[in-house]
């Protein structure tokens, strides 16, 4: 069965996968089954545009293109075979074979059509496949065994049941689980070693989404629609992956006879991206991408820097899984309320610091991307403490955290790279009488400040009177003994030289 790509799973529209589907006649379930069995090796018709083989061995249907190993029937053979002198025989220089079983244990410099997309989780150094929800055979409920395949732009929908318990515990309902720490692998590689950052394509969320929560008999902020936009080049390499998620609220008490069911829609769209210019600086660029998670070190391992997660109930949580990652250049402001447990001033401060900072205090931030980035120290200004302070005299406690990150564009004007220069944790403090009976409001803000400094013209930002390409002076012109020397790999035209002379001398040429 050539279309049986997923072991022990009923492949959608695979009409011969009767063993896994447990149905003798799959035409009763699938609408694309052919009326008669196809022999030979087949692929979808849209994948084929030319085959240098004997036409007598070719069978074309509405949806498939098949090549037989030999003409099986005399009646099917042409009465006067065409002259095929000079053409290669089947199996000589042209090899047409069925796809092997679904696996990622292959290594090539490109993806082929229908290759499964590999994923890599850098925090855990775990390999995987990009699996997307799809309806199970003979039903509508979602299964997570459907792998995304290269160049297969598909849309499907399935249903999930939601209960009070699964509302906050089922990761499939949480938008965060569709992209956290996950990267696509640029080209297929063998799963024997950690993936270099040069082969990792981060999944970039197009927005920030709150986590699901149960409130007043409703499950809020559950995933209703997921859309992956995956870019690729003509060489078969992945270039980017964007994720969009649509959330919905589900009433858990309106239907008393059965559990609430939510219809989820899934879209995978492949877009042809323009090939990057062949430049050594471009391949060596390790600057941060807009929207990529800011990373820190935790127990010797890189992990995303996080901040307070959004909560519909408004209560603070010290659970690390409920925190939201800080995305590069995305300014955020979050807040929550907390009822402090009884304790002395030191215990109260520790409780609040854990909520604001997380379980670990960030000491360094990655200045750039890559498996071995440069690191910058985080300056932390905490609240003052004294051994003499008591609950009776009042405790100085943090009530707000401001995370300020400085970054700048570095490198040539035509290829700037984004780098983090430094960061500061600044706590705002206030004296409280304890025990603190009323809920305490905690807030966290994240501010990214662009500190890029451009040199003065003509080596700075473009001016209206400039008549040469942007970034020309940053690479291609130097001064030696009063003479300007033009260098570079590209050709310099006379119009470019004259325009440069006009800029430097103020002369006009006609």
What does this structure look like?
Pfam families: DUF1619_N, TCTN_DUF1619. Keywords: Cilium biogenesis/degradation, Glycoprotein, Signal. One of its GO terms (biological process) is smoothened signaling pathway. Residues 1-57 form the Tectonic-1-3 N-terminal domain. Belongs to the tectonic family. The chain is mostly beta strands. Among the domains are: 115-272, no CATH class; 292-450, no CATH class. The protein is 8% helix and 34% strand. It has six helices and 26 strands. The protein has helices at 18-21, 164-169, 280-283, 345-357, 472-475, 494-505, and strands at 41-44, 58-60, 64-67, 118-121, 126-129, 131-135, 142-147, 154-161, 182-185, 200-205, 213-215, 218-232, 238-251, 261-272, 295-298, 301-304, 306-307, 324-325, 332-338, 364-366, 375-381, 395-410, 417-432, 440-450, 477-480, 483-486. Strands 4, 5, 8, 9, 10, 11, 12, 13 and 14 form a nine-stranded mixed sheet that branches. It has a six-stranded mixed sheet with strand order 19-24-22-23-21-20, covered by helices on one side. A three-stranded antiparallel sheet has the order 1-3-2, with no helix packed on it. A hairpin with a 2-residue loop joins strand 15 (295-298) and strand 16. Residues 72-101, 276-285 and 468-510 have low confidence and may be disordered.
């Amino acid at each position: 069965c050539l279309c049986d790509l997923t072991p022990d799973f009923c492949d959608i529209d695979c009409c011969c996968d009767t063993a896994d589907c447990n149905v003798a006649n799959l035409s009763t379930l699938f609408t694309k089954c052919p009326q008669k069995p196809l022999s030979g090796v087949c692929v979808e018709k849209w994948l084929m545009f030319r085959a240098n083989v004997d036409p007598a061995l070719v069978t074309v249907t509405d949806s498939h293109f098949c090549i037989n190993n030999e003409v099986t029937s005399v009646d099917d053979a042409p009465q006067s075979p065409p002259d095929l002198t000079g053409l290669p025989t089947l199996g000589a220089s042209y090899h047409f074979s069925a796809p092997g079983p679904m696996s990622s244990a292959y290594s090539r410099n490109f993806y082929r059509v229908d290759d499964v997309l590999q994923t890599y989780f850098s925090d855990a150094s775990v390999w995987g496949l990009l699996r997307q929800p799809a309806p199970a055979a003979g039903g509508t409920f979602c299964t997570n065994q459907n792998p995304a395949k290269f160049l297969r732009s598909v849309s499907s929908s399935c249903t999930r049941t939601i209960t009070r318990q699964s509302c906050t515990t089922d990761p499939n309902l949480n938008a965060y689980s569709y992209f956290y720490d996950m990267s696509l692998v640029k080209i297929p590689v063998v799963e024997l070693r950690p993936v270099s950052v040069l082969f990792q394509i981060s999944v970039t969320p197009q927005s920030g989404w709150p986590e699901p929560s149960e409130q007043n008999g409703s499950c809020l902020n559950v995933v209703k629609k997921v859309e992956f936009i995956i870019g690729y080049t003509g060489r078969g390499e992945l270039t980017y992956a964007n994720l969009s998620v649509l959330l919905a609220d589900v009433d858990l008490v309106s239907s008393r006879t059965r559990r609430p069911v939510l219809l989820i829609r899934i879209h995978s769209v492949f877009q042809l991206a323009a090939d990057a210019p062949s430049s050594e600086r471009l391949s060596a660029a390790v600057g941060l991408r807009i929207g990529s998670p800011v990373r820190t070190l935790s127990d010797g391992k890189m992990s995303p820097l996080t901040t307070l997660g959004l909560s519909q109930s408004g209560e603070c949580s010290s659970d690390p899984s409920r925190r939201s990652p800080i995305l590069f250049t995305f300014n955020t402001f979050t807040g929550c309320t907390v009822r402090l447990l009884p304790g002395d001033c030191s215990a109260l401060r520790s409780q609040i610091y854990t909520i604001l900072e997380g379980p670990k205090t960030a000491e360094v931030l990655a200045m750039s991307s890559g498996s071995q980035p440069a690191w910058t120290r985080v300056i932390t200004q905490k609240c003052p403490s004294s051994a003499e302070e008591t609950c009776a005299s009042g405790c100085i406690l943090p009530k707000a955290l401001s995370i300020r990150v400085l970054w700048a564009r570095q490198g040539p004007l035509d290829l700037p790279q984004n780098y983090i220069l430094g960061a500061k944790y600044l706590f705002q403090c206030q004296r409280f009488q304890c025990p603190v009976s009323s809920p305490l409001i905690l807030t966290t803000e994240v501010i990214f400040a662009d500190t890029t400094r451009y040199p003065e013209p003509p080596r700075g930002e473009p001016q209206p009177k400039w008549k040469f390409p942007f970034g020309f002076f940053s690479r291609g012109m130097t001064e030696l003994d009063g003479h300007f020397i033009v260098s570079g790999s590209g050709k310099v035209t006379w119009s470019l030289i004259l325009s440069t002379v006009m800029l430097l001398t103020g002369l006009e040429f006609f």
